[in-house]
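To: structure desk
From: M.T.
Subject: fold request, one chain
Message: Could you run this one when you get a chance? Sequence is below, nothing fancy, just the single chain.
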Amino acid sequence: MYPTSTLSAAASSSARPSSSDSDDLMYKRSLEKCEEGPGATVERVVSEKDPEEEPELAERAPSPTDAPAYRLYKRRWVGLCAIVLLNLVSGMVLVWFGPIANDMVEDFGFSLNDVNWLGNVVNLVYLPSSIILPYLYGRLGTRGTCYIGAVLFILSAWIRYLGSIRSLSVNGAYTFIVIGQILGGMSVPIFQIIVPSYSQKWFDLKGRTTATMIMGVANPVGNALGQLIPPLVTDPRQSLLVMAIIFSAAAPAVFLVGNAPPTPPTFAGSQEHPSLSSLARALLGRTPREDYTYMSMRQRIDFAIITVVFGVLVGVINAFTVLTAQHLEPYGYSDTISGLMGAVLLLVGLVAAAITSPLYDRVLTSHLAFSCKVFCPVLAACWLALIWEIRPNNEAVLFVLMAIIGATGLTLLPAVLELAVELTRNPDGSSAILWCSTNLFGLICVLVEDALRQGPNANPPLNMHQAAIFQGSLVTAVIVFVYLVEGKQTRRAQDEEMRRALARASRSMDSPDRDATGVEVREVPRESQDPEARPSDDLEPVTEVEKHDHRTVA
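Reply: Done. Structure tokens follow.
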């Protein structure tokens, strides 16, 4: 990760905005106010290694005139596009067999419950995989972990295709397909959980939410493609070959994903990689108040509410995409119409998210929680409406409801992911918990709705009206808790504070005649620091800028 850096700047003529005591303590390591005189000190802690032997360190330790210290790189977009492609493909795993469930029953001899478990097993294997991934990111880095995902892509694709061999028994074919789904399901969280972390490492405040949106909605769009493509392939066995080719072609994109830029784009991007255990300590209240990842009681409650609400909302959508054909075909809708409705839900959501995410970055920067409170009732109303609108010859209304659910749901997706990082300052850990929650609730919803399917003697046979009542009631019940969320965006406040401090330091160093305090820059070896003293007490300054009094220059 980045070398340790500490920056202390004097307060300028404009005072720092007031904040709570806990937030002031969290700034302690990164930003200190010098109130004993007009002079200010900018301190940069370096190791005793020669900068020529540590090129990254030399780049991270600019001269006093090289400010601000943050930087954006054009190659961040290459990695973003690679992650988008990988998430598009991994998103197909969950729903591939949903639109062709009845065809799978006829061609392979599976039961509907067997076909449902081809999706359930993806949700099931996601749970332990998502817990392990933050540890792998910390040990192997982003790129190394993505290599594992690429290997799983290729193995799952061709093992799954082995199940299409006609000479195999029903159980033999099902075994190969399930193993392929398990391996594919293990790859899904690798590319999904990485999204907020990549945004934080490579993008600044004006593009972070947009980057999260672009990468975050790629997986749901992959769900949409997974519903569109299989019905277009006439033979279910042939669709397994198509799936294998798609996965194999996308795997090399992992070589385009970078670990981290040499110079971070923001203060948050410069922080060390926090582990999932550090998030667990923060949630249990065992993190020191001055630590960067410290969470107040209010933030812990907010994160718990967000985890449950986000898990239910996305889990219900995932369950519905898996069971779309089983919801609609009893009322006379074809596999193609069922796939199109699921695709409309996700593709319209993509367009809506593309429109709203730049607004989050530039207009609604401090209102992520408020936007959730506005959109959630719309989602509840649509899911309740499905209870009565899933009926014969009602395509137009159903398409409209799917579009509204997609537009509101995917608009909230990047906002919630970013809000979770704002509360925890732990992008990998918070993302892992959120997506684990969605897959857990998705699995629960599929099992419950499958059990609520009516029998062959019902009117119409095998209808899922009771399942529609269940999902509408569940969404409505959990959305109420959204209005208890405060949603204070601590990470953004820290980034903006540090950016202002760097700007003040830069102006003080570049303009010696301006009305501001002087700035002094010192290079301090890491080993020389006394825990009881400031680093600048040990060595003579390497570079010193003459101090100036606070006077108005005519």
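Reply (cont.): The chain has 20 helices and three strands. Let me know if you need anything else for the meeting.
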